Amino acid sequence: MVLWGLLLGVLLAAVIGYLCLPGLFRQRKPQEPPLDKGPVPWLGHAMTFRKNMFEFLKGMWAKHGDVFTVQLGGEYFTFVMDPLSFGPILKDAQRKLDFVEYAKELVLKVFGYQSVHGDHQMIHSASTKYLMGVGLEDLNKAMLDSLSLVMLGLNGCSPDASCWCEDGLFHFCYNTVFKAGYLSLFGHTEDKEQDLLQAEQLFVEFSKFDLLFPRFVYSLLGPREWLEVGRLQRFFHNVLSVKDNLKKDGLSNWLYHMLQFLREKEVAPAMQDKFNFMMLWASQGNTGPTSFWALLFLLKHPEAMQAVKKEATKVVGKTRLEARRSFSCDLSILKCTPVLDSVMEESLRLRASPTLLRVVQGDYSLKMANGQEYQLRHGDKVALFPYLSVHMDPDIHPEPTAFKYDRFLNPDGSRKVDFYKGGKKIHHYNMPWGSGVSICPGRFFALSEMKIFILLMVSYFDLELVDPDTLVPPVNPWRWGFGTTQPTHDVRFRYRLRPAE
Length: 501
Prior knowledge:
The protein is an alpha+beta fold. The protein has 18 helices and 13 strands. A hairpin with a 2-residue loop joins strand 10 and strand 11. It has two domains: 2-114 and 355-384, no CATH class; 119-353 and 394-497, CATH 1.10.630.10. It is globular and about 75 Å long.
């Protein structure tokens, strides 16, 4: 017994030593960025970083300047905070910064999907073909029909639909946009009532997974939470199985094209099920929360709401629903809404906080805009956090924490694209979708989803906060770095369908 205890002790010491050695002995070399290994061997700054990424990076930036390397859980991340220096990283002319392999590891861990050769390019190709142009027009029509079904029910507008209803604004937006988006992409059956019930069940389970998602990525779940994640994964793999979804009507060409590619690659059906789960999260994980922030900002800023309503009336016309009718709208108007476009861009600037990561392949020379060069090591990660370094930069965006619905409009009403930092025009002035090889391939459909939803809400409904003086809730600090942020708590609001005239 004593011998076994001694052996286990030696083994534990060896494992700890192996994990900690890189953190204990790594030193900054000439021309490398400032190195901050943190207070705990191997872990480094991991706990502080994961607790509140935004505040941690703000402190590191003030301490070390525009470039610094920090240790996070045995890995080294070099953060570049000067947006004028983003170009070489995003374009990567040296071809030494990899995103694809890192993404493969992440989706395997989170969704259980084992990537196959060429699928990253396939996703971008399918998205270009079916989430833009004519393909996007078809999906927009499906989204409008799905929103009618979700918001008005099976038989369209009912005679008593003009009664006030109360809900949490975050729950309402996330629930509505998620279900409509799911039905638009994954299709429907002849039984619309069952489709709605399934979509609601999916949202309930998706919300549970989404709540655990940030800590799941960081491997910070408790034992019961790990079991719950496993249950949720199995649930989605079953409900989104290809054998069932391929039988549905209205399955989007986007999803069908990607599944056809996997079948041609002889990917097992069980792995295709996991791919479907990954695509559901990728397509619906951010649109509902973004719609919440946009509507909340409009409700808190009457002048912005008035401007959007005025534009909606101009492009949609006066709207009243008759009994037993669904929403109707000429979706070509989505190209003629500069005010709403600015509102969406401003909402994303304020609340979208993606982290852009690249893995260094071979020693890499990073040249900054000021001429300074830094050497980065093979295997380290280069990271950009544009929310802090771009979206909140007062030089680029004066009063960066304020919601200004016309921030992205020129005086003549056209889209504003000229922004400056230090007197120099900046290309990357707003980066809610990422950039370069990691840019969101579904961004055009995602934006259309949200715009259709917002247009319907301001055109067909009366909206008001239950408490007009309620404050905009702060961001849940766990959500920094994971796409669109979410609030620490919901906000109550009332809505009613405007009665037919």
